[in-house]
Fold:
Amino acid sequence: MGKIEDLRQFAIFKELTDIELQNIAEIVKKHEYPADKRIFEEKSIASNLYLLLKGKVVIKKKSDLGQGQIIIDTIKPGEIFGWSSISEPHNFTAAAHTVEASEFLTISSDVLRDLFKKNNHIGYRVMTEIATVISSRFRHLSQQYANQKK
Amino acid sequence: MREAKKIDGKPVTEQELRQFNLFRRLTDNELELIRVMVSREEYQANERVFEEKSEARKLYLVLEGRVSIKTKGDFGRREIVIDDAIPGEIFGWSAIAEPHTSTATVITMERSAFLTLDSQTLIDLFEKNPDIGYKVMAELALVISSRFRKVIGQFVSYI
Structure:
């Protein structure tokens, strides 16, 4: 179980009331990882959403041409990753590794989906923020791609 | 870019809206609340529908035709195609996701017909009916993440 104060630092929960945050706190699990440790692999089954509390995580993807890995994104405290867990086909698009010793929360996507169905206010608020996060990452990725193509 | 030609007098039908996955979780009654807000617009080929970084006010649903979705990147020199949208697909999602600024430029590749939804009217509906809001935003998250996967695929095949 997590703490409401920890959850408050995440923009995806910014519109939730204390009672709603308590519902979320009851379904999160806390993890601590050392630096340079793999959190999940590309193409593995995505069943958890991740919320970074402390440290730094990079999201990497293998190049098709076999020239190593591309860093797609760097996650800082207060940000989420692993959102493939809430979108079909529920396989991670990329791998996640810690850069520094990190603490993060995980939420089972099945449990989260059940909560959203039971409480549509939480569902609407959180899903709107998640869509905003994905949209912002999409913008960032498109620009990286456009810059590389020059 | 010019003002889109608004088509009046032809009501939007439930059947037209049902072809969009964005609304697939809605009941008939919920879809009716959306239907009454929808407008029609038509564009000729090679017209700019909106520009990257402009204020995003409308969500677009493609009924006919095809559009190309482009970005200039940080240096702003040359537009590259990042995706397209065909009938049954949507674009302009920045209208309902903060900061409400278009992530890309959209240009028609052929004569095209769209259904459009004013973002503020739609957000007001979601605020009053969070169940509709949840169902539509969950589908929107799927649309954006699927586009994200597509761009990642293009990116890694290029590097």
Observations:
- The longest strand of chain B covers residues 58-64.
- The domain at 5-119+131-158 of chain B is CATH 2.60.120.10 (Jelly Rolls).
- Chain B touches chain A at residues 71-75, 77-78, 80, 82, 93-94, 96-98, 103-104, 126, 130-131, 133-134, 137-138, 140-142, 144-149, 151-152, 154-159 (CB under 8 Å).
